[in-house]
Specification:
Blueprint (H helix, E strand, L loop, with lengths): L1 H20 L2 H35 L9 H8 L20 E5 L4 E6 L12 E6 L7
Antiparallel strand pairs: 1-2, 2-3
Length: 135
């Protein structure tokens, strides 16, 4: 008897769950969670990239701004067998590298969720440069 009742409830739960998943409010919440996940993943990746570039500045093999895309493709590895272009952020935009002589630092950035560089939602990571580093 119990199995029969459960067998009747499973399709009903599936229908109710499907209806809830199609609600605009739930879709908006899911989209917000997905965007937050992409931002966190990009922040972590930028942290790893900026650290890698910093380490390469110590031995003088740091990448040039104009070759940053190929540098990332060569030096960044994806995790868990994921296939994606490691020179691009979670939204498919190229990461940027800049060396600031004024602040004596290197900066790696992503355009962020709006996919436009130099806006409020950009994601950045920086490292101070050792004095005497040629950039």
């Amino acid at each position: 008897m119990m199995i029969s009742a459960l067998a009747k409830l499973i399709p009903l739960a599936t229908i109710v769950g499907g209806a809830a998943a199609s609600s605009p409010k739930l879709k908006a919440q899911i989209a917000k969670v997905m965007q937050t996940t992409e931002v966190v993943a990009t922040q972590q990746e930028i942290s790893e990239i900026s650290k890698m570039v910093y380490i390469d500045t110590i031995d003088g093999t740091h990448p040039r701004v104009e070759n940053f895309e190929s540098y990332l493709k060569t030096n960044m590895r994806t995790t868990n067998g994921t296939q994606r272009d490691t020179s691009k952020d979670q939204w498919g935009q190229a990461y940027r590298l800049a060396y600031s002589r004024l602040r004596n630092e290197l900066v790696v950035s992503s355009a962020g969720p709006d996919q436009q560089h130099d806006t409020a939602d950009d994601i950045r990571g920086s490292y101070p440069l050792e004095s005497g580093v040629q950039i």
